Amino acid sequence: MPSKLSRKELTQCADCACFNIRKASRAVTAVYEERLHETGLRGTQFTLLVMIAANEPITISHLAEKLVMDRTTLTRNLRPLEKQELVDVVQGEDRRTRAVRLSKSGHKSLAEALPLWKKAQKKVVSFMGEEQMTDLLDKLHTLEKITGI
Amino acid sequence: MPSKLSRKELTQCADCACFNIRKASRAVTAVYEERLHETGLRGTQFTLLVMIAANEPITISHLAEKLVMDRTTLTRNLRPLEKQELVDVVQGEDRRTRAVRLSKSGHKSLAEALPLWKKAQKKVVSFMGEEQMTDLLDKLHTLEKITGI
DNA sequence: CTGCAATAGGTGTATATACTCCCATTGCAG
DNA sequence: CTGCAATGGGAGTATATACACCTATTGCAG
């Protein structure tokens, strides 16, 4: 009875939101990583540096919330940045918390990476068209709020 | 000179396509994984089963191309599915190639997972609205073509 | 036929992601 | 003050992702 899926069902699955957003995500990520490569930063790492710079000092959980990322994922993603001494993670006032900050070196790396990020961003915006891009970002912002519904 | 980024620059970075699509990707993936959890399949694994079912038998490289995924990533993603005996990977005619197919068990798992995938898909489509969703998928399809430009 | 470039694929390594379970600290009910 | 739930965070485990480098097979120029 539960034999093979019909052609129609398989076609339906091609519109899977999860599949399509992950697929596009891989393609877009590749653009940024290519440009950022010479800085030694990955796309995600650039994002982390930006988010920390904009909010420092910030606790792990608060940062994870802003990133719509699991707390434990963030802990792991910070590891390489700590190793490269781009971020400092120290004990907070509430001794349960840890305060994340950019080091001087982290600010420097971020500043150096910015023009390369701009190139990647420009490439994607040019490719999509400015209006289309704005609309896409709107939809992505909507989607990220689906968590917890 | 390369000191801290200005408030304006940090604000600009908030529109990073890479950051935003990955963030939304995490949120959307969570919806599908929650629904698929009882099947023992991850979102990506469901996608893989669908793609294989629609194209079997198919070589690693051809499948990777359809998925806009690195060839070696696909090899690794197939590993857990092989272990669960949901897919068979055998030597192709051209002995350099490997032919990927669903096992009987794989077809069964896929058929059982389909209604749960439909629930997840419906949740996302309801959340976004049907027209918005169609438009989003269009944009994602455009984006995935940025690779290699 | 031989040598070699092209093709198909895997391994080592590193990061990204999140779940489950665990520990430390805090704050509050009693 | 004490006991305990709530909060903040890490470790173990498993999957997802891709780059650099390696091996095996094929096919073709000569």
Widest sheet, order of strands of chain A: 1-3-2
Question: In whole angstroms, how far apart are the ends of chain A?
Answer: 34 Å
Q: Can you tell me the residue ranges of chain A where pLDDT is under 50 for at least 5 consecutive residues?
A: none
**Rg of chain A (C-alpha, Å):** 19 Å
Compute the number of structural domains of chain A.
1
SSE order of chain A, as H and E? Answer: HHHEHHEEHH
Number of strands of chain A: 3
Largest interface, with Cβ-Cβ < 8 Å?
A-B, 65 and 65 residues
The name CATH uses for the topology of chain A is Arc Repressor Mutant, subunit A
The helix-and-strand class of chain A reads mainly alpha
* Largest sheet properties of chain A: 3 strands, antiparallel
State the CATH superfamily name of chain A. Answer: Winged helix-like DNA-binding domain superfamily/Winged helix DNA-binding domain
CATH class of chain A: Mainly Alpha
Q: Compute the number of helices of chain A.
A: 7
Mean pLDDT of chain A: 95
CATH architecture of chain A: Orthogonal Bundle
Q: Based on the structure, what is the oligomeric state of the protein chains?
A: homodimer
